Amino acid sequence: MSGFFITFEGIDFCGKTTQARRLASYLRRKEYPVVLLREPGGNRVAEKIRKLLLSRKSSGMTALTELLLYEAARSQLTETVILPALKREQVVVCDRYADSSLAYQGYGRGLSVTMIDQLNRTTTFGLLPDLTIILDIPVSVSARRRQLNRKKKDRLEGEKSDFHKRIRQGFLKIAKTNRRRIWVVDGTGDILQTWQKVKKVVDAFLEKSRS
Q1: What CATH number is attached to the domain comprising 155?
Q2: What whole-number distance in Å separates Cα of residue 24 and Cα of residue 2?
Q3: Residue 168 contacts by C-beta under 8 Å, 6 or more apart in sequence?
Q4: What does the pLDDT look like over 61-78, one tens digit per residue?
Q5: What's the farthest any 2 CA atoms get from each other in the chain?
Q6: Owning domain of residue 30
């Protein structure tokens, strides 16, 4: 089977990072060559951009600057890591990708979705994931998990709840217009319950890819 690209999306604390790691381990047990990445980040240059984007010291950053930095990190990661991995017929699993810019900077910040879509096409070199899983949870669940985690909020996590509600609705709108690529999975259960739902979606995707 040739390489393929799977992404996880959702609001903060939806569980996507944990599920991306579980999926990478699952696919490796099935003897797929897997590259596990996060976005923004994934290589030296993009990780530096990530630190700038998420630092609370960057509180004065404008919405457009934020968008362009995300797009720059995405371009760097796609050209230097993702596309070469797919060319080697590896499986790429990524914690966030271009849909996050549409949700966060488009629906969340109010920037033009059309503009963001055009930027996404440029910075990804036209690459789309083969499968995207959105882990959907209410903002109230995200807030509760954040409190239990006791992790210091980054710049975006510290935004007001209305911002995160717009992002959640944005992801759901994106899913409705991309039904062949995107699956929405209820992420309100525990890690194992959510994993069973993710695994079912991925197994169906793998079976369809083999046929």
Answers
A1: 3.40.50.300
A2: 16
A3: 11, 136, 137, 138, 139
A4: 999 999 999 999 999 999
A5: 51
A6: 4-210
